[in-house]
Amino acid sequence: MLLLNTIAEFFQNYTIQIVFTGSLILGITAGCLGTFAVLRQQSLLGDAIAHATLPGVCLAFLITQTKNPFVLLLGAGISGWIASLFLKLIVENTKLKKDAALGIILSVFFGLGLLLITIVQKLPTATKAGLDKFIFGNAATLLKQDVMMMSAFSIFIFLVLIVFWKEFKILVFDRDYAASQGMPVHFFDVFLTTLIVIAIVIGLQTVGVVLMSAMLVAPAAAARQWTDRLGVMLFLSALFGAISGTFGAITSSMVSNLPTGPTIVIFLSIFVLVSLVFAPNRGLLWDWIRSYRNRKTILTTTMLQNLLLFSEIQTDPFHPHDISALKAIGRGAIDKTMKELSRKGWAQQFEDKRWALTPKGLDKARKLTKEYEETISGFSSA
Amino acid sequence: MDSHQLDILILAALTAVTCALPGVFLVLRRVSLMSDAISHAILLGIVVAFLFTKKLASPWLVIGAAVVGVLTVSLTELIINTRKLKKDAAIGLVFPLLFSIGVILINKYIQGVHLDADCVIFGEIAFAPFDRFVINHIDLGPRSLWTTGAVFLLNLTFILVFYKELKLTTFDKGLAAALGFFPTLLNYLLMTIVSVTAVASFESVGSILVVALMIAPPSAAYLLTNRLSTMILISGILGILSALGGYFLAYVLDASISGSMATFAGILFFLALIFAPEKGILAKILVRRWKKWNFASETLSVHLLQAEYAHAEETERVVSHMSDHMLWNDDYTSEAIAQAIEDGLIRKEGNRLTLTPLGREKAKNILEKK
């Protein structure tokens, strides 16, 4: 009960409410769109676009002289969108590859933003325009109107995703087929990129331009490990984004000197790491277990067949043999495998360290050899 | 121009060339974004080294940066090798994490030193002349000029010594491996060079603008030449131009020098993108147009020649007949006729078209080529 009360009191704090809602919206939206970015191998597009929003923010301020978040974010969106068109122009018209185009767009737009920021900071009208919070983001400075606007943007994104779900799905998995069926794929490319620009704009004030890309990539990369279905991946990605977003934002606004963007990235990375290792089926842990089991099976069958070969030298198949000739397999592996064989009751060791098959082991070895030969002949006849 | 401005200008140009040298190979190897990843991630190495040594001038900072730079590359490749994630996602996951840890360490444990996240992102070349390199009370100029100069020599030596190896591993990795050139080892060497360059440059131009200087001039150079040696030379020249142009842009606008340098590098790239001979967008449009009208005028001459062969000149030579015969619209036809007359392939007499000797020659050649 005490815990519940603490939580209830915690959420009565106005700033916490705003920060919580803002980062929740951001996490869900970025998680959803990140799914498409990661599947389309455009993970670094977000990085470039996020950096490219900076000059837009500054220009919007220089032109209108207001700090109205809607105006600044509109500038950010336009500038990010123009950057994405430049990217398309470079990649489609030159032999330069996507990586170089992204690097140029990212750094040059950001440099332009920096140039403009220093101009803004020297204006007599704005002693400190607060534009630099767009670089690292600061959840604690979010206002109610910011959160309202973020919700409006993200509702728009969700409506679009629902309406064009089928189109986006086929664009992700088989773009060529979509084009052959007469779908305007170039239009949908730009459309999807536009949605990503909007998602980035939503996150600018909270995580900033430098780390916004992680907000898109990480939840989707983690979610990818748990499922092969787009819908499920989208849901999980939104969930991971929401959890890391809210945890990160609230932690950073409660602990002093803890910037929001980097804190969220730490939480996101934990999700990615856990997913990479533990996700059922795809996780690395299961890979390791599978390969350990495979290795063990291969070693036991090899050893058993070797013992069978030995046993065929003598008239008595259960006559003990010195197995040191097999040390090419590896001493550690031999000891472990022989232990395993004796545990299964397929082989036994005599007092003079020599080994022999048991009747059960002999049966098993003959069966394995027969199966092996059948498989081989199956291959050669096929 | 006073001596401080000259110091800044020289430092800016030197930084630009130093960045352009490894940048050429990043662009050609299609790993440009590793410069972005490395220039962010090395912050962690610098911060950790600083926490141990408590000195900003310590060489351990460079070593720390280089170690984390290589760590970034190996972690990224580790993730790619698990085949759980694609290359782009792996890059996009590793460097934000390392950078974030760096930023958090700075915010929590380092105060009152000129090492904060802003300085890392922006760099401030304008302050560089005030940090002097003094030995035995003799002023040897700005300290960053010496560090950048050292890294410039390192990069130049690296490229000169390993030119052949770099060239082969860049253009044919498989052959390089087959001939025993250790492409992986060379790749890690290159990434170490990138890390060292980034740490030496980012103090003056900031981590993101290191990316601009590493990628934009070599990309522009790539559009201007097909030779590796020429490309390195042009990249260096474009780098210096970006530095000079950027400096004066900053001077005129009273704005950030590093921001202006990146902007100027971008402008130079954009000019190359549009105007580069052969590979520029304008050249491509002109070639496409030329091909289109060249084809049209040649088609016309072939048609007229066939009409001569068939003795059907009276009906086939009439201007008004061309559109029907070729399935062209009238505007296109008159444009094509004008082009053919300009090329000296045909003559127009009244409403009749006649082949010139040159046109007849050309049309015959085209037909015989079949």
Provide a concise account of the structure shown.
The complex is a heterodimer of chains A (382) and B (370). Chain A has 382 residues and is mainly α. In chain A, 77% of the residues lie in helices and 2% in strands.
Describe the structure.
Chain A is mostly helical. Chain A folds into two domains: 2-280, ABC transporter involved in vitamin B12 uptake, BtuC; 285-381, Arc Repressor Mutant, subunit A, CATH 1.10.10. In chain A, 77% of the residues lie in helices and 2% in strands. A two-stranded antiparallel ribbon of chain A has the order 1-2. In chain A, a hairpin with a 5-residue loop joins strand 1 and strand 2 (355-357). Chain B has 370 residues and is mostly helical. Chain B has two domains: 3-279, ABC transporter involved in vitamin B12 uptake, BtuC (Orthogonal Bundle), CATH 1.10.3470.10; 282-369, Orthogonal Bundle (Arc Repressor Mutant, subunit A), CATH 1.10.10. Chain B contains 17 helices and four strands. Chain B has helices at residues 3-28, 33-53, 59-81, 87-109, 117-122, 143-161, 163-171, 173-178, 183-205, 207-224, 228-253, 257-275, 281-309, 313-316, 319-326, 330-342, 357-369, and strands spanning 132-135, 138-142, 346-349, 352-355. Chain B has a two-stranded antiparallel sheet with strand order 1-2. In chain B, helix 1 crosses helix 11, helix 2 (33-53) packs parallel to helix 4 (87-109) and helix 6 (143-161) packs antiparallel against helix 9. In chain B, 46% of the residues are buried. The mean pLDDT of chain B is 87. At the A-B interface, helix 3, helix 5, helix 6, helix 11 and helix 13 of A face helix 2, helix 4, helix 5, helix 10 and helix 11 of B.
